[in-house]
């Protein structure tokens, strides 16, 4: 199967995620106080381990969807469009992600970050389900709209993951930045699935990724598994 725009989508998605990661890193790195601290020490914290996995899966899902949109929209029972026309919708997907980042800035100053993260991941999951089991423009618009909900996931996961890490904040930040490699791995795995069960059903993989992100938002990001969601600190929103 020819995956149009597949490599381009991976490179574009990784570039966007990488820029966002670098925007977070300087502030986190400045707080590192002990060079003797190891990455293993940071990973002893459950919410940190799960945060690394959440970044890996979120970036992977976002890039995978963008990478397969042209193939998906070009399907006869979905959009039945030419590659050139389908590419316009890919631009809308990434454009929606950028637009949502600015709109999310206002939301994150008032809402609980765990609620926002979990809610956006659930919304993305529902839209993916619509894209997997519907057809025509309903399916097209459902998947393209996921970009809007992707917009606030990175800053929330990142901030929740380094919460309460103290002198290990620098190590925790580095681990989360390294986790954006998911944007190169998850699309490859979806490609394997697409060759076996078709492009439309292969979106089950990013669906599972978003399901984990939702879990992380509502439960997994709590410090030591017991912190009340009401006590979560609100992240400073930084577009990426």
UniProtKB/TrEMBL annotation:
Cross-referenced Gene3D superfamilies: MFS general substrate transporter like domains (1.20.1250.20)
GO CC terms of this entry: plasma membrane
Membrane topology, from the record: Multi-pass membrane protein
Keyword Ribonucleoprotein assigned: no
Ranges that cross the membrane: 6-29, 50-74, 86-108, 115-133, 139-163, 175-193, 199-218
Highest taxon above the source species: Bacteria
rRNA processing recorded as keyword: no
Cellular compartments annotated: Cell inner membrane
Keywords: Cell membrane, Membrane, Transmembrane, Transmembrane helix
Protein name: Glucose/galactose MFS transporter
Species whose genome carries this gene: Pseudoduganella aquatica
Taxonomic lineage: Bacteria, Pseudomonadati, Pseudomonadota, Betaproteobacteria, Burkholderiales
